[in-house]
Amino acid sequence: MTHRTYGVAVVGRAFMGRAHSNAWRNVAAFYPDGPRVRQHVLVGRDRTSLEASAEALGWQSVSTDYEAVLADPAVDVVDLCVPGHLHSSMAIAALEAGKHVLVEKPLANTVAEAQAMADAATAATERGVRAMVGFNYRRVPALAWARQLVADGRIGTVRQARVAYLQDWLVDDTAPMTWRLRKESAGSGALGDLASHAVDQVRALLGQEVLGVNGTVHTFVPRREGADGVEEVTVDDAAWATLQLDGGAVASLEVSRMATGRKNGLVIELYGSHGGLRFDLEALNELEVCLDGAASYSRTLVTEPEHPYLEAWWPPGHVLGWDHTFTSQAADFLRCLAEGRAPEPSFEDGLAVQQVLAAIERSAAASGATVDPKETR
Amino acid sequence: MTHRTYGVAVVGRAFMGRAHSNAWRNVAAFYPDGPRVRQHVLVGRDRTSLEASAEALGWQSVSTDYEAVLADPAVDVVDLCVPGHLHSSMAIAALEAGKHVLVEKPLANTVAEAQAMADAATAATERGVRAMVGFNYRRVPALAWARQLVADGRIGTVRQARVAYLQDWLVDDTAPMTWRLRKESAGSGALGDLASHAVDQVRALLGQEVLGVNGTVHTFVPRREGADGVEEVTVDDAAWATLQLDGGAVASLEVSRMATGRKNGLVIELYGSHGGLRFDLEALNELEVCLDGAASYSRTLVTEPEHPYLEAWWPPGHVLGWDHTFTSQAADFLRCLAEGRAPEPSFEDGLAVQQVLAAIERSAAASGATVDPKETR
Amino acid sequence: MTHRTYGVAVVGRAFMGRAHSNAWRNVAAFYPDGPRVRQHVLVGRDRTSLEASAEALGWQSVSTDYEAVLADPAVDVVDLCVPGHLHSSMAIAALEAGKHVLVEKPLANTVAEAQAMADAATAATERGVRAMVGFNYRRVPALAWARQLVADGRIGTVRQARVAYLQDWLVDDTAPMTWRLRKESAGSGALGDLASHAVDQVRALLGQEVLGVNGTVHTFVPRREGADGVEEVTVDDAAWATLQLDGGAVASLEVSRMATGRKNGLVIELYGSHGGLRFDLEALNELEVCLDGAASYSRTLVTEPEHPYLEAWWPPGHVLGWDHTFTSQAADFLRCLAEGRAPEPSFEDGLAVQQVLAAIERSAAASGATVDPKETR
Amino acid sequence: MTHRTYGVAVVGRAFMGRAHSNAWRNVAAFYPDGPRVRQHVLVGRDRTSLEASAEALGWQSVSTDYEAVLADPAVDVVDLCVPGHLHSSMAIAALEAGKHVLVEKPLANTVAEAQAMADAATAATERGVRAMVGFNYRRVPALAWARQLVADGRIGTVRQARVAYLQDWLVDDTAPMTWRLRKESAGSGALGDLASHAVDQVRALLGQEVLGVNGTVHTFVPRREGADGVEEVTVDDAAWATLQLDGGAVASLEVSRMATGRKNGLVIELYGSHGGLRFDLEALNELEVCLDGAASYSRTLVTEPEHPYLEAWWPPGHVLGWDHTFTSQAADFLRCLAEGRAPEPSFEDGLAVQQVLAAIERSAAASGATVDPKETR
Question: What is the pLDDT at residue B1?
Fold first, then answer.
């Protein structure tokens, strides 16, 4: 048996570059029936640090010349792990160069950029070139299983979704100013970073689109001291929203970087007419399920062979970690490429998320009144 | 040692009448240093059922004549456990008759009624007559302790409060129409019933007033079948709000009667600059505390002698039940009467809660835009 | 409708006397269809403190003369809340005087005393006089439900029971010497106090008798300072046992007063051929259930009307406290008296528990080798 | 900077071979400052399946000739992932051939084999050849941190350890007979498989040796049907023990393959004079800690940079999985090789565990009486 092999270029060697490298290095070991990967080139700006990273992470070469990478026929896939304001131009260039593209979330910093990317992806599809946005939590087995359970009607019609993403890394008001707290570089604060995951999950789990948004944003520590003295924080520390969905559900959203003692608390509760579900990313191998009209919630360790993705991993009770989601994401992406199918979440999905985030900001600026995420500003 | 004894009249023999009777019957046993109670008269409409209740619940007599009760000099305290639309007239009459008054929450069905009651209470105070509204959860030891911890600065400045009150008794869309689902009798749905507790706790725990409200309300099952056929449900099944507080905090609120599998889930999370707190009424003897800059949350069984109210009860680890809150509430009320102090929560507190609930409805009617709870409609 | 009324004498006014008084005072209010109680007399040694207790706890009179109480025809029930070494003589005297007897657990300090009590109860039964031992945790709704579930085969054949009762009030090695730490007054340490509950639950839940016992006991702090200087601790701080049951199950037991941070942790896990159950007394309204071959455990709030005892109490989600078990125990006892049925747990049950506790000590003294609890020493 | 590179041979391609391969493939990426690995050869019996595994798992070659592997100078490390009865001869041969050896736990099936291995390891050490046994849970960050906390005196003197390892894969009494249920091939049942981890943790966490053992073993389903008809199960389904430790602590042990609904429940509770700890492998990123005399337990997500191993992995709140323990184990082993230090746990540690397991069986055969694990049979 032979396996199709894809040459991959990862752009970026920081946190996300490392997580994605890990995925490409391991995908064949866990998904041996799928395509193979050649870790062709790690791309960045500083050759010395790139070389050190490449050696440790398993890359065959490094490059500081993105255009050359796009021109290299040995590169089949471009995987962008760079800051959000670079996504649009780099992704569009790669698609136009005929490379399949994986972009780390959020898709872009603005709706306009996201729209341009979605348009480019549509055009590329006609040439057999694929694009995907990396909302990796879609590959958390518990969340993938939750999505199946909802789709199969196991909790009936979903009425309420209660979603929070709570972290605490800005609680200390003497924490220094960084580029992440400036609107021009970061786009937004907790909204783009945390609410993007939350909104993607609401759309994915419910299979419903957002029709109306009421939003509030707040910056609890409005000034922080940085290298250049005290500076204004121009992004949100926390945000709240109520989303009206086209299937009749209402979702509440709360995201924060000031939630003391919460490290990575993406908490999702779904309440349906015949059941409910509860998930917390800090316990990512568990799903609490109330199915088929049951009276209470079962804590289920999502490590059984019949659970999504688990066949690839370990026996029951042998839990997965956060980074395994990237390996499964890579496997799904590669399989779509090999089979000529559209991978998901698509750039259209990424755009829809961006529209909701922008609508939260617009509503907040309009005293919280309802905003349609599809309307032009 | 002698103890002042108060003659008590409870009005109502249903769920709340029973819970309050239990409190009056037990208060001396648990708070032996406080005043004594004579369970003088149980008041209602049907003499036969009243007599059966009175015999079992420990009342010395029954009455169907509220005016006679108010005229009876043996009655010192009137405790109203009747539906909300009767609170205002009955409480004002009792205060005017010189009786101390305890009213079960919420204070009233409308701001106007609540305002009239607060005015009557102010007038009565000058005559030494006292009034209190029965937000019994203020006497949950874990919540009373939480309030102390916040007041003592143990979690620093509170920035975010995340509060939900989730029940599930309306999940079944074939559940029948009742008076609780009609606006004219019930005033509102989850708002008055559940959000009133939640708003009272936000105000009490944070010691802050609500300046601005964004609200959303929704009825998931708009029609239900009753004795007279299919009828429109005219109250909310669920409500959401964001509250801006005068100390700079933001509180999110979500209440629902459609939260499948949640029986009595009043969940309160506070996030401060130096700690946090977490509470769930379904585990009412526990408080998760992150204090004084600690890195994580300690699950604390709030049953130690130094915890509020616990000296009156059992040794460590011997947990309290829901109904014990009423006994402690009665003890607090009696001690205030004996000492000539104003009991709390006052009718002013009850009015402030009512104003926030009304503001949520007004905001919801105005597309979610910000509303000032103090503004005249 | 008239109700049979029983005159009750409680002996003892300390912790247990107070808990039992509470039960007699409240039983009619929660179980209105059952018999009525007249709180006739509170019995003890010091008249002044008795009178203060009686006034607060609702007793009509006090007495320091136990023989007079036994001679009083107004007393139908004698409820013994005195130290264990007094149980045997006082209970036997009461039974011989024709009084129904309730004895707080454990039944006695020695097997010989327990045997004499069981014999006396057998003799009394023939005269229509009833006896019960107060293992109040049999009236925890979650545990009563657990027993039903096992009896109904919902977890199949029980194979393993894993039971611990963990407290921490002796962790501090400077805690002072007391009578509870001397064998002559207390009989034993954690064994009699904690393991008695644990063994009673194993027998009740499984419906099986103990055939063989392997035991270990240990005193971690062998000397403590008391009023008379440093003294040897002559009872166990902790004990461990493995019990072979006649239905083929094996139960493990661990009890301790040195389990730092555990306040009242009676934790019971049952593993059967088709399911399992998990309970923790610190969360006494909850039972985790894995029934009928299910794959995982549901956390169930045991507050639904169909759960044992709950019809008498509050609506779903309104949790009970530790002391409610005594009220339900009193109700069960009274109903048995009125209906001429044998209440349970019987003195025979109390004796069986005592035999297992003694067997643990004998096994521990014999290097841990297996001991038959029924064998004569 | 150059890194010493070690050629590795893994023997075995099943569950453990796959887990260990994963570790060797990833160690440089997560521990870039340590030595490098060349995945030289995957060793087994069937060339075809070996080649398929090797391609997916990243091995450069395969071999079915273990002697040739031992003779190959490109092999520095031999990693044995074969059944327990093969450990002794293969490990001793490798050590004699001058290869560093890692052996998957348990060290061997019998004390005699383990003793021979420990002797061989001692002899090899003099030639600079290293040996380690793969109790991978020593590299669970929460357990490594727990060990530090105990060693640093943060919970005072440990008095009680309460350890269980509960799985449920044999609950179904129609599950078929396998080699794992025959004494001649498996050595023992839950004892060798599960109790070996538990005993290793007790020794590691407490830093104490086992002086005395009381044990019980049981086979709940004594006959199962296999390919050759119904056969007797000759290993234990569950085992219980009480261990006396040389520092004065007492540890209780319970292991089972019949614990319905428990998938991988290695639960460890430590109770000390000034605190306690609680761990459950099903939530392996968490440790509940009660430190320095605190009153209650803090649930701590063990994902902070200051926690053991975490510097190598992801930011706070980004949880690790079961398999990451093998990567950290490989990193520790390699670093010891490079620095000429003895890796731990040593074969002596593995022998000590084996002696305790054997003592449990001997005690069980002697009616549960105390056995010294060091005594010759």
Answer: 53
